[in-house]
Design brief:
With about 475 residues, the protein is mostly helical. It folds into three domains: about 110 residues, Fumarase/aspartase (N-terminal domain) (Fumarase C, Chain B, domain 1, Orthogonal Bundle); about 220 residues, Fumarase C, Chain A, domain 2, CATH 1.20.200.10; about 100 residues, Ribonucleotide Reductase Protein R1, domain 1 (Orthogonal Bundle), CATH 1.10.40. The protein contains 20 helices and six strands. The strands form three sheets. The chain has a two-stranded antiparallel ribbon. It has a two-stranded parallel ribbon with strand order 3-4. Strand 1 and strand 2 form a beta hairpin. Helix 11 packs antiparallel against helix 12. It binds arginine. Arginine binds next to helix 7.
Length: about 475
Amino acid sequence: MSNKKYNRTEQSQEDEKNTLWGGRFTEATDTFVQRFTSSISFDYRLYQHDINGSIAHAMMLNKAGILTDKEKTEILTGLETIYHDIKDGNFKWSIELEDVHMNIEAALTSRIGDLGKKLHTGRSRNDQIATDFKLFIKDQIDLVVRLITELQRSIVNLAEQEAGTIMPGFTHLQAAQPISFGHHLMAWYEMLDRDYSRLIDCKKRANFSPLGSAALAGTTYNIDREYSAELLGFEAPTRNSLDSVSDRDFAIELASAVSLIMMHLSRFSEELILWSSSQFSFIEIPDRFCTGSSIMPQKKNPDVPELVRGKSGRVFGHLTSLLTLMKSQPLAYNKDNQEDKEPVFDLLDTVKDCLLAYSNMIPAIICNREEMEAAAIKGHTTATDLADYLVIKGIPFRDAHEIVGKAVGYAIEGKKDLSSLDLNELKRFSALISEDVFDIITVKGSVNARNHTGGTAISQVLLATKAARKNLDTRENK
Ligand code: ARG
């Protein structure tokens, strides 16, 4: 949604005018306070939801017999023309009118006359802002979950393509056991799947309408809150007017769900940065997602993942801001709450950009399959497999562990890897070892031996990608 931003030149012209008029200390302070308390420079972004809220409110007032049919129609027509003017960039926001609500209401009155003043019957800006913000957040959640789904799709495609690519799996960032690269990628998919469900859950709790709670205690008019809630697509009205105008849990829940997404993206970023370094050389990130160095000609820096990793910090900061903003606030509405918008706007802009960047970058990743497999072979990563093999042949696990430890020592001494020892060499450590050991001691054998739900066997990875695709399809057809 594009919209002309609050025009700072206009604002400074106003300041100048006031200085010219008065030049007195109190005038100057008033101008400052006006600017200090106004929120129009950012809450203009809620204009569409504010107008939708007003439309529902006017329809409800008509149904309740407070507005005549003619009055309702005139108000709705006025609001629609305002909506189009704002959308087309033909609306002048005014700082004197403080916020989005009063700017729109004043425009309505100037367009349709005194009738415009009737719109505010039975409501307050306190229930209005809570309603607008919830409507905005619900719409934004729809956008974010769509972006998560797209990224999950990119991951599933790459995972399926790379199911047979072997890489080292790490613990403590030390090569631990060989795994399928597709399996590693599907771990990212799982994180995003939880992110998706957290947002859906957050939206469910945000889906109750504060409209009609008025300033804090409700209103003396015979309003129908169920009707306005229904018109706005809420499940029902909220149950307590005091809570309705002061509750910002939905914003904090959103910020925490988005923080978890950013935390996940920062983990993906860290891995991509490591994997694309010359020390790992597992992958290449195409040039269009990187930049060079102005001094070191050889450099190609993974800027996109680095920035995503960095941006996680500002989102966590917004979560902390919101929690701190609400901490210790007495009921009901306090002006503090005006501070809830900017963190939420920024964290949403940030997460949407980061998800989009990742959806574009993941399909473009180039995998150095040989390098990955070579790294998986290094470090005796199939030692556990050899121990398991001996256990199956009847040796107690502790003894098997000891035997394999000795075989690893022998391999290290000969500057070889455990998986490259031949049968005669292996037989020195246990007579029970026979030709079939190579089904498990090779990296591919090791990977495919983990053939159970959630395991890294190539066949399991392909089952997981298939199930994931089905999950995404049903989600999108809902
Ligand atoms: N701009 C205000 C906000 O964002 C709207 C509500 C103002 N209400 C009031 N009583 N001052 O919270």
